[in-house]
Amino acid sequence: MDLFLLIEIAILSIAIIIGSILASAVAEALQYRYADTLIACVIALLQTLPEYVVVIAWSLDGHLNIALASIIGANVLLLAFGISSVIVFAYLAGVKGIRKDKALDLMRENSLESIFLALSGVYMIIIGLKGYLDLIDSIILLFMFVFYTWLTTRLPPEIEFEEPHGLARKFLDRKGLSVIVIVLSILIIGISGELFAEKFINAIELIAVSPLLLAAVISPIITELPEKLIAYMMALKNEDLARLGILNFMSSRINNGTLLFSSMFFATIISGHLSIFEHVMIPGDLTVLLLLAGLISIFGAITTVDRKITVPESIVLMIIYAISMYAIEAPHYAYIVCIVLLILTILVIANAAKYKRFYWVKDLKYTLNLAFKRIECQHSQD
User: Fold this and answer.
1) 3-state secondary structure of 103
2) Which residues fall within 8 angstroms of residue 53, CB to CB, at 6 or more apart?
3) Angle separating helix axes 175-206 and 64-76, nearest 10 degrees
4) pLDDT of 109-153, one tens digit each?
5) Whole domain around residue 39: which residue ranges?
6) CATH at residue 16
7) Long-range pairs for 372-378: beta carbons < 8 A, 24 or more residues apart
8) How many separate domains does the chain show?
9) Strand 103-105 versus strand 280-281 pairing type
């Protein structure tokens, strides 16, 4: 393989990482001062900007299978590895509460993230079973993202007294600096991401490895994990911050499982590769991986029905991530993992029901009441 091409990809990857860290830091500072839905959408996009740039660049160039593989890989990475590794790291670091209980306790309001994880997972399965993504799917997924964002902005902050950490603290209440850094990070990520997408395709043509494997594994690691470093650092401090780190991953996973699919479809339409009423067809290998990603999302969500994510459940998710990436090269393994996930999901639900720890229904009711009461309070103040 061309050494110069490898160096180019490495430099562009570093640039994307720097841009994503800057964007994530500003986004973290913004979320402590703004709760408006539009601002929340902007924050969500800033936190996942690298993945969007790369996926949209591939979509505009017609590399739809590569874009889809990257989306699926990012969704699996954020849930199966991201969330689980935060809990395992916190446990190994001896974080009080997590170490003692071998689990991370969630709040009642966190049922919102869990349920939207499950819903987006169900819709991924629907798309996989159909074998295509169309305009109706894209509109539904876009609505799901906007509705989720609207609801989350109506809930009180997780930790009222908490302030941004590290780099994010430098942007708190500094609007001018924040705007400059946002523009700079968008330029860095936009230019580097587009070039990375181009060089990545060139590299794929020279490497004797499955293009889908590279897109599903390497691309998400570069575009998703760097901005999540703050989540890992937070998780090592205390259980409250570990929970915030987990919610960061969950929110990004919901974002990628809804808006990113829609963005890919609309980018394909804009580029002229498809008309607005045509379908983005999903090849067989990616169909089974889409089903697997949907089931992983549902299983990950279901593990929270008792308001806990345990260390054993996290280890299982990490193992599933490794097997899922291997299944890209051997799709028949994905069917086996799907069956195992179905069995595990049923067992978790049955166990929660047996011990009367299936809290989703009453927790969702509580969360929605909390959100709408806050809306009424805001209207009365106005």
Assistant:
1) strand
2) 189, 190, 193, 194, 197, 223
3) 120
4) 889 999 999 999 999 999 999 999 999 999 999 999 999 988 887
5) 3-381
6) 1.20.1420.30
7) 372/154, 374/154, 374/155, 374/156, 375/154
8) 1
9) unpaired
